[in-house]
Amino acid sequence: MKKLLFTLSVIILSFSLISCDDDNDDKKRINFSEVPEVAKTFMTKHFTDFSENDVLYVEIDVEDYDTYEVTFKNGIEIDFYPNGVWKSIDLNGNLLPNSIAQLLPENSLTYISSNYPNAVIEEIEKTSRTFEESSGFKIELKGDRDIYFDSLGNVIRDKGQESQGKETANISDYPAIQSFLNTYFKGLTPIKTEKEWGKIEIEYSNDVEVEFLVKDKDATFKSIEAENNPELMRNVIKGMIGSTAILDYLDKNHKGQTIEEFSIAAAGITIAEGYVVELDGTQDYKVYFDKAGTHLATVID
Fold it and tell me: How far is the C-alpha of 52 from the C-alpha of 72, rounded, in Å?
């Protein structure tokens, strides 16, 4: 009888251990050396003096397309797709490196800096399931405020705001917008004017779009896209900064590339204050300048 009880105890214990192991079958600890080189390069580039010694542990999540999960000793957690491209970054109280912020669509950062000027970004997550899909973003601010953006940085949903939906904007209500349009679009009639999420988007023919941030009757220039109208883009850039400094830099260092978009940089997130130019060509770039037009940084987009 004692032998039977002992045997049953061993069987029950063994079953319990197997059950516990099954609970963790979705994640497997691995060595840092097994992390894809693309992921290692990302960490080295964006985190000052990064080395393997900064890593607490690495896991593979087999239930999530074999995602690599790297946990730093300071609490930062970064998930990477199987090809090594970053999927999400949980800062856990640490500051977001400017170089990572610059990888995000400028529209999303401008929205955050305009609507939540003192907010702290806690987490960034690409919302697609796999790296093959076109990806939007979820940005979580401190205080559990989640904001969802599409791949261009346009707001899809802000849990802290109630959207009234898109509505036709009356430009005559905004003197600053009227002044801008009279300067650069005199005699032209827009084909669409829409207001949503604290911004007004004005669209002209030939794929020209201008956006302004608005609050009550105040409006400030946000961005212009006019890939098919290089002369217009150059005129706006020169007019906004009052010199040819930005254009001189682009002509010298990015000759032959098309200016796709010119916008106000997200203050306090990507740079303190200034502008960003997005270039289209064999290689896409974001080029950052301060308010005087002095070059600050160039990021491969």
Answer: 9
Sheet holding 67-72, edge to edge: 27-30, 55-61, 67-72, 77-80, 86-90, 121-126, 137-141, 145-149, 155-158
Residues contacting 13, CB < 8 A, separation 6+:
none
- HSE-up (13 A, CA, CB side) for residue 133: 11
List 27's β-bridge partners, or say none. 61
Helix, coil or strand: residue 102: coil
State pLDDT tens for residues 33-56.
Answer: 999 999 999 999 999 999 999 999
Q: What is the mean pLDDT of residues 84-106?
A: 92
- What is the chain's mean pLDDT, rounded? 84
Helices 230-241, 175-184: crossing angle, 10 deg rounding: 130
For 133-176, the DSSP string reads: S---EEEEETTTEEEEE-TTS-EEEETTS-----EE--GGG-HH
Long-range contact pairs involving 228-236 (C-beta distance under 8 Å, separation at least 24): 230/258, 230/259, 232/184, 232/208, 233/259, 233/262, 234/259, 235/184, 236/184, 236/262
Q: Is the pTM of this model over 0.70?
A: no
DSSP string, 214-244: EETTEEEEEEEE-TT-HHHHHHHHHHHHTSS
pLDDT at 1 over 60: no
Q: Tell me how far apart the alpha carbons of residues 151 and 52 are, in angstroms, rounded to a whole number.
A: 32
**CA distance to 45, 63, 230, 241, 284, per residue, from 226 (Å):** 32, 43, 7, 18, 16
Between the two ends of the chain, the Cα-to-Cα distance in Å is 72
| Residue 143: predicted pLDDT | 81
From CA 192, how far away is CA 166, in angstroms rounded?
Answer: 12
Q: What is the CA radius of gyration of the chain?
A: 25
